[in-house]
Amino acid sequence: MGLFEKWIAVVLATVNPLTGRGVAIPLGIALGLPLISLCVVVGISNFVLATVMILVIDELEHIPVIKRFIERKRGKTITRFIEGKGLFYAVTLGPLLLGTFTVILVFQALGTDKKRMIMYSLLSAIIVTPLTAWIFIASKNLLGTLLHNANMFG
User: Fold this and answer.
1) What range does the domain containing 40 cover?
2) From CA 1, how far away is CA 130, in angstroms rounded?
3) Angstrom distance (rounded) from CA 137 to CA 24
4) Which is nearest to 54 in space by CA: 104, 102, 16?
């Protein structure tokens, strides 16, 4: 597999609704891509995906059937959560747990301010992407050490 194909695989894993950064970063590391470049590419890919989704969903909200569905789903408790710190945590950490698609769809349906979501998605790309890479590398080394020690005693 050539260098171009490796980068394409990482970008596709990042924008895939079933995988995202949680799979793209370990894949890039396993493919031997440079860590800083990997974090930049994954972060930008994730941010572009989130921004496009937010803007597209915002346009879809004007369709009457979708608008009625969204208005039925909005509630006061959820609105307080969104207006508080909940949106920050959901948009920055949520994509690691639920995926970017799920988080964006749910919070757009709940009436979140699109500018705040775009800003938080950028923060997520800048902060959470390198943090994910660091956690993966640290856990990979820890797992390797544990397996090596288990083999010595086994």
Assistant:
1) 3-153
2) 25
3) 13
4) 104
Regarding pTM above 0.90, the answer is no
Cα–Cα–Cα angle for 9, 38, 129, rounded to 5 degrees: 105
d(Cα 41, Cα 140) in Å, to the nearest integer? Answer: 21
Q: Are 7 and 33 in contact (CB under 8 A)?
A: yes
Tell me how many domains the chain contains: 1
pLDDT digits (tens, 9 = 90+) for 51-110: 888 888 778 777 788 777 767 766 555 666 666 677 777 777 777 666 677 777 777 777
Residue by residue, DSSP assigns 55-76 as HHHHHHTTSHHHHHHHHHH--H
- Count of beta carbons in the 10 Å neighbourhood of residue 42: 27
Q: What is the pLDDT of residues 99-151, one digit of tens each?
A: 677 777 777 777 777 888 888 888 888 888 888 888 888 877 766 676 666 66
| Residue 103 in tokens | 């988080």
| Half-sphere exposure in the Cβ direction for 143 (13 Å, CA) | 6
